[in-house]
Amino acid sequence: xxxxxxxxxxxxxxxxxxxxxxxxxxxxxxxxxxxxxxxxxxxxxxxxxxxxxxxxxxxxxxxxxxxxxxxxxxxxxxxxxxxxxxxxxxxxxxxxxxxxxxxxxxxxxxxxxxxxxxxxxxxxxxxxxxxxxxxxxxxxxxxxxxxxxxxxxxxxxxxxxxxxxxxxxxxxxxxxxxxxxxxxxxxxxxxxxxxxxxxxxxxxxxxxxxxxxxxxxxxxxxxxxxxxxxxxxxxxxxxxxxxxxxxxxxxxxxxxxxxxxxxxxxxxxxxxxxxxxxxxxxxxxxxxxxxxxxxxxxxxxxxxxxxxxxxxxxxxxxxxxxxxxxxxxxxxxxxxxxxxxxxxxxxxxxxxxxxxxxxxxxxxxxxxxxxxxxxxxxxxxxxxx
Length: 385
Ligand SMILES: [Zn+2]
Known about the structure:
The chain is α/β, with parallel strands linked by helices. The chain has 2 domains: 6-165, Peptidoglycan recognition protein-like (Lysozyme-like, 3-Layer(aba) Sandwich), CATH 3.40.80; 178-333, Lysozyme, CATH 1.10.530.10. It is built from 12 helices and 6 strands. It has helices at residues 9-18, 38-43, 47-61, 117-134, 157-165, 178-188, 198-212, 216-227, 263-278, 292-298, 321-333, 344-384; strands spanning 6-7, 27-32, 71-73, 79-81, 99-104, 138-141. It has a 6-stranded mixed beta sheet with strand order 1-4-3-5-2-6. Helix 1 (9-18) packs parallel to helix 4 (117-134), helix 6 packs across helix 7 and helix 7 (198-212) packs parallel to helix 9 (263-278). The longest helix is centred in the last third of the chain and has 41 residues, at 344-384. It binds zinc ion (ZN). Zinc ion binds at residues 31, 142, 148, 150.
């Protein structure tokens, strides 16, 4: 008989971390079994038999070579193994190549069973762990690629993602690529007011983040939020190279927050400041953040772990501050950075930006014309006096 084994989330993730992965996994697919139901599982004397039943259906009725999914999450919160992780799943037709397939045991269509308690906790914790191990944050509901209701009409993806996002850690390695970060910035603001190239600013964030063990893509997302995608216009001027509002409080006068000699120093200070919030470990590079000791003295050092912990600490009152950063991050990581083949929605924004660029060019020319006119008027006035 084909055997199946159950794990806790932690022991399953430990097993995965040790596994030599031979295929690239970028997408986490989420399903509900519909049948077996939670009730079937509860009533079964031998829980393994429930998984075995799915295997029999998949291999004998559907003629698949093995059970379709990599794991099944049962109502008691256990992770049951399935198809080998190094094998492509039978998950969503046409989308299986880079997928990891999860089945949640139950029928989560409205009016039937509920995804709750230890099972919900396991689902969330497993997905978070998979995100970290596979360096991705792409969660796909089966219904996004088909007209089925799977993983159940009672599940709202946005709300679900929101719950998972609440646990995004600031320490770690960046998930977004350099190209995604740059292209996303340029799509929103084609003319960032930075004293270096967009390529350079992105590279500084990734590099300085790596030095301190901080996710450079999170810091970059925060910089985009703080500077309005490098349009500035708040309390900080572009020439201050201050991308995180360091030293800017509600009572700070415009231009009086911290200034940094170069963009790279500005990024370094930002990363160090962020590290101060998440870790009591000393910073590695020489300290350039002028507010670092203030964190030490105020007891804020190492007081945050997740991005949303910054609410009320980095930003006061800061309701929704971390969530805003995470929304930007999500857009960056799901951004198709293939130059020349943006999706339709991006295409619209690109066209809009092109128009804005042209308009900007027209306005600049007008300004030049008026400036010329003003100086000739001035010289005429001088001639009169
Ligand atoms: Zn499904």
